[in-house]
UniProtKB/TrEMBL annotation:
Reaction equations catalysed: orotidine 5'-phosphate + H(+) = UMP + CO2
Species name: Rathayibacter toxicus
Similarity comment: Belongs to the OMP decarboxylase family. Type 2 subfamily.
Pathway assigned in UniProt: Pyrimidine metabolism; UMP biosynthesis via de novo pathway; UMP from orotate: step 2/2
Stored Gene3D superfamilies: Aldolase class I (3.20.20.70)
Family annotation (CDD domains): OMP_decarboxylase_like
Name by which UniProt lists this protein: Orotidine-5'-phosphate decarboxylase
InterPro entries on file: Aldolase_TIM, OMPdecase_type-2, OMPdeCOase_dom, RibuloseP-bd_barrel
Keyword field contains Endoplasmic reticulum: no
Domain named Orotidine 5'-phosphate decarboxylase: residues: 1-257
């Protein structure tokens, strides 16, 4: 399970915190404290820190440091994408060991083609890091584009979402050094994957990591993970943010523990 660190302005207010860098830092550090020892991953939404400029990034750096010290893995939800040296620079910011913003994985957008992310994927592979590429996302605005059919090339006839997943799986098969790929995909838990040209009945080797937002506030139920993701369930990271953060600072640790129990029971059935 992955707990989001999404300091929306309304959540900061509900937590009794100011919508400023100090408020962001207090919010993030309290989420890290509640998550430590209960889950393995936290996912800061970079945009909420970026809107406060350099001071927001300073707050994020300290939150990332706390997360590492607590033994948590961090997925930087930055959704970066570009080509050549630019995409490599993004990767160096978020994935390079020793970077002030170092995370264990980051999210990326492949609108310019998965090959445009080569510098990022290579840096992640060589550094023991991960990348999650957007494939089938839960926002309704993405539906027409992600269900559109590829017109030429090796993925001709596949949906855009299906092509991204297929190309990520092929990249892992060629370059991965372990049974679990260093590159995964983002699949929204509120979408019907078959409508996006994604089939989940057969396992993918190396194992394809899936980051799955959409649980809790957005409507997906943890109990439905095996049904939603089929053969991909074994390496699916359930991601929740607002439904956990919304209970407030005094109850968040108990809420995280309850969600973890729900996941364990869902996979035991």
């Amino acid at each position: 399970m992955c707990v989001g660190i999404d300091p929306h302005a309304f959540l900061l207010e509900e937590w009794g915190l100011a919508d400023d860098p100090a408020g962001l830092e207090s919010f993030g550090r309290r989420v890290v404290e509640a998550a430590a020892g209960r889950v393995g991953i936290v996912k800061p939404q970079v945009a909420f820190f970026e809107r406060h400029g350099s001071a927001g990034y300073d707050a994020l750096e300290r939150i990332l440091s706390d997360a590492r010290a607590a033994g948590l893995l961090v997925i930087a939800d930055a959704k970066r994408g570009d080509i050549g040296t630019s995409v490599t620079a993004y990767a160096e910011a978020w994935l390079r060991p020793g970077s002030p913003l170092e995370a264990d994985a980051m999210t990326a957008a492949a609108y310019q083609g998965l090959g445009s992310l080569e510098g990022m994927l290579t840096l992640a592979q060589n550094g023991g890091k991960g990348v999650f590429v957007l494939a089938a996302t839960s926002n309704p605005q993405a539906r027409p584009m992600q269900r559109a059919l590829v017109q030429d090339g090796a993925q001709r006839g596949a949906t855009v979402a299906g092509a991204v997943l297929s190309e990520v799986a092929s990249w892992n098969a060629e370059y991965s050094r372990s049974s679990i790929g260093s590159v995964g995909v983002v699949l929204g838990a509120t979408v019907t994957l078959s409508e996006y040209g994604i089939q989940t009945h057969a396992p993918v080797q190396p194992v394809l990591p899936v980051l799955a937002p959409g649980f809790g506030h957005q409507g997906a139920a943890i109990a439905d993970v095996p049904r939603l993701f089929g053969a991909l369930s074994g390496c699916t990271i359930v991601s929740e943010s607002r439904s956990i953060l919304g209970v407030g600072p005094d109850r968040i640790a108990a809420e995280i523990a309850r969600r973890v129990t729900d996941i364990q029971e869902s996979f035991v059935r």
